[in-house]
Amino acid sequence: MKISNILRLMFGYRTSCIGALIILAVSSVAIAADVIAPKHYSDVDIVKKLQPPSWKCIFGTDHYGRDVFSRVVYGTRIALWVGLLVVLVEALVGVGLGLIAGYYGGGLDKVILAITDMTWALPPIVLALGVITLIGPGLTQVVAAIALVSWPPFTRVVRAKMVSLKEREFILAARSIGESSLNIIFRYLLPNIVPSIIVLMTLTLPSAILSTTALSFLGFGAQPPTPDWGAMLSEGAAQLIIAPWIATFPGIFIVITALGFNLLGDGLRDILDPKLKI
Amino acid sequence: MIRYVLKRIIIGVLVVVAVTILLFLFMQLLPGDPVTMIAGERVPPAKIEEIRRSWGLDKPVYLQYFYWLSHVVVGDLGVSYVTKLPVSLLVFSRIAPTLQLTLTSLVLSFIMGIPIGMVAALKRGEGVDHALTGFITFFYSMPSYWLGLMLMLIFGLYLKILPVSGSFSSQSLILPVATLTLPSVATFARLMRTETLETLGEDFVRTAWAKGLPMRRIIFIHILRNALIPATTMFFLYLPWVVSGAVIVEAVFAYPGMGQLFYKSVLRQDYPVIQSIILIIAVLTVVSNILADLLSAFLDPRIRIGGRRE
Question: What is the pLDDT of residue A152?
C-alpha cells in the first residue's frame, strides 16, 4: 500500500481521522511551544503564587508562581519525546527478538517465547520500579525501565507473523535461489510485517506515556523544574485542596494525548491489520 | 487433562525458580553490604565478620543462594534495612488489604465490562456502539493517578460525601476501588467487544440464525458462552496487572496495602522489602497464569486437544 493511499484511508475513517487531528494539534503545540507559552516553564514569580485560573493566566499559577499553562505547553514536548523514545526502544528489542524467534524456530524460539511470556505476565509498574532500584531515578532511566519491561507485544506479533509468512511461496522461492538468511529476513519478510509494527507502535505509545508519567508522578522520573506532566501532577497533588488547577490541567493533556494515539491506533489497525490483537 | 495440569504446574515451578535466581542476582548487584546495612556503621569489623559467617555470607554465591532460598521457603524473608523488622512481618499484614482492593475492583470490572463490550459489538456501527466505544477509549487513555486525584477532588473535597484517604471504613474503599476499576472496565469491555465481533462471524452463529433460533438464545448460548472464554482467562491474567496498578492507587490514597509499602520501600531503598514484594507478586502471577490456562482448557475443549488458543 502506498503512503498516499494509507493517508487517504486514515483521514477517510472517522476514528483514525479524529485521532490524527488530535495528534497533529498536540504535535503543533510541542513544536510551537516557544511561541504559544506566554512565559518560560521555569520562570518563577513568587508574588503571583497559587493564583486560580483567570483570563490573564488561563491555567493559574503554582506554588512558585510559575505559569501552569506554559509548563503544560512545554510538557507536551517531553511527553511526546519520551513516549516516542520508549516505543522505539521497545520496537527495536521486541522486533529483533521476534524476527530471530520466528525465523530460526526450534529451541531458540522456545527460549525467547518463554522469556517474552514471563516478562509480559509480570506487572509492568512493579518490574519497572525494580529496574529503577537498580539503575537509579531520572527521565532516561525511566525510559529504559519502561522499554525494558514492555517490549513483549512486539515479539509476539512479529514472531506469529514470521511463522505464517515463512511458509509462503515467495519465501520458499527466495530460499531456493540461494538468498542469504539476512536478505530473506530484511528484504522479504520485514517489509510484510512493517504495517503491523506501525499499528503496534501507535497503540503502545499511549501506555508508554501513561507509564512514564506514572513513574514521574511517583517521583522517580523527571526531576524539578522539568515540566513533565507526571511530575507536575505530583506537585499538584500536594496542593490539591488549595490549588486543584495545578493537578487538573496536566492530567487533561495526558488524557487528550493518549486518547489521540489510541484512536489513531485503533483506526490504523482497522485499516492495515484488522486481525491484530495485543 | 491430568498430564496437561501437571505440565503447567511444573512449568510454573520452573518459572518461580528462575525468578528467585534473578531476584537473588538483583540483590547481589545492589550497592551496599547487607550486614552493615542492618547492623549499622558503628559495629566493629570483627563483629561484622562474625555475623557474616553466621549468615553464611562467606560461602560461595551459589551456596548463599540455596541458603537464602531455604529461608524464603519457610517464610523468612530477611530483615528490613530501614525499620530493622522482619520483612515477613511488614509484608504479610499488607497482603489482605491489597487483595481486598484488587479483587473487588477486578470483579466489578468483569461484571461491568462484559455487558458493555457485548452490547457495543451487537450494536456495531450504531449510536450505542459509538457512545460505548468512546467511553471505553476515554477511560483506557486515563492515567489512574490523575483519575484518583479528580475523584478525590469531586467526591471528597467538593461534595464531601466520601473519605479522601486511608482505610478505616468500607466507605474509604470506594474511591480507590473506583480509581482502579474504571480503566480496567475499559480493558474488559474492549476485549469483550473484539471477541463478540469475532464470534459473530463464526459459522455456527450463522447456522443458528439460519435455523431461525430466537435472538435471545443465539446471544446467550452461542455468542456469550464462546466470547466469555477469553474474558474469563483475562480475569486471572489481569490480576497481577491490577496489583501493579494498586501501587499507584495506594500511593495516591495512602491506602495501607502492599503497593504502598512497595512504593515507600523503593523511595527508601529498602532492598529486602522490594525483593520480597517482587517475589510475592511473581508467585501470584505464576499462580494466576496457571489458573487462567487450566480454566480456559476446562471451558474450551479445543485447547485440551489442540495447542494453545492464540
Answer: 93
Nearest-CA distance B213 → chain A (Å): 29
* Smallest Cα distance from B174 to chain A, Å: 19
Question: In which domain, by residue range, is A187 found?
Answer: 3-272
This complex has an ipTM of 0.86
Q: What's residue B305's pLDDT?
A: 59
- Alpha-carbon span A258 to B157, nearest angstrom: 27
- Residue-wise pLDDT for B60-88, tens only, equals 778 888 888 888 888 888 888 888 888 88
Domain total of chain A = 1
CA separation for the pair B140, B150 (Å, rounded): 16
The shortest C-alpha distance from A258 to chain B (Å) reads: 5
Q: Which of A207, A195, A102 is closest to A150 using CA atoms?
A: A207
Q: Any CB–CB contact under 8 A between A18 and chain B?
A: no
Fold of B91-309: MetI-like fold (1.10.3720)
Q: Do B153 and A129 touch (CB under 8 A)?
A: no
Contact between B142 and A255 using a beta-carbon 8 Å cutoff = yes
Residue span(s) of chain B under CATH 1.10.3720.10 come to 91-309
Residues in Cβ contact with B90 at an 8 Å cutoff, skipping those fewer than 6 apart: B80, B83, B261, B273
Q: Model pTM? A: 0.88
User: Has residue A278 been placed in a domain?
Assistant: no
Give per-residue pLDDT as tens, A182-207.
Answer: 888 888 888 889 988 999 999 999 99
Residue A222: which CATH number? 1.10.3720.10
